[in-house]
Amino acid sequence: MTFIDTLNAAWRKNNSLLCVGLDPDPAKFPAHLQGKPDAIFEFCRNIVDATSDLVCCFKPQIAYFAANHAEDQLQALIAHVHATYPGVPVILDAKRGDIGSTAEQYAIEAFERYQADALTVNPYMGKDSVDPYLAYPDKGVILLCRTSNPGGSDLQFLDVGGKKLYEHVADIIARDWNTTGQCGLVVGATFPGEIARVREIVGDMPLLVPGIGAQGGDVEATLNAGKAAGGTGLIINNSRAILYAGKGEDFADASRLAAQASRDLINRYRN
User: Fold this and answer.
1) What's the superkingdom here (predicted)?
2) Looking at 95, 139, 164, 247, which residue is catalytic?
């Protein structure tokens, strides 16, 4: 199945719009994992195993693995998800953006080396920098649109021909780039008004929404602004509040409880 097909199935099967972001910081790991050579894989695998029935996808952030020389552990983690939970897609959060020839290599890295189901991409170098990812029609390409960080307004809120830049990005992707139906957009939960505007522009296109949990985004406002028909259309990411819910050897149990609470809170406002 394509990424979009798998995502739609996971929304239904797990009754969940929750995405658990896997941002492993070894300094925050429980004591029994400290110093172990495969600690990142073991930590993330335990989180995955504890929460797989509560999520619509997982989203490992590549920087946390690369900074710790743990790319092999990232590869093993994605393989574990696919082998053990084949109905749960994996979004590799890398926010790639470069000229076409370099983008071709990034696409090979994400989709062939790591076997990710989708990748986050920066669209600000234009369509030719995105085409190499779109050449994999079974994969998801999730493009930055209105990000959750405060500085996002420095550029994304600029006026461009009578509309905001993020609106232009949403419009051009929905109208001209999404010919294979594999695109999604990143829109932060910290800006529910902009989520509503993007939803108005792009119809039922999936929106990856960071910013709840530690960043303080409002779940009810996010759902009211961004849900699509049938109460789907959103991939609502929560990372630190789930990953580090527990400090001891039972950390995965604590993460499951936090993920279940997050999913149930989201579902409260879906219909």
Assistant:
1) Bacteria
2) 95
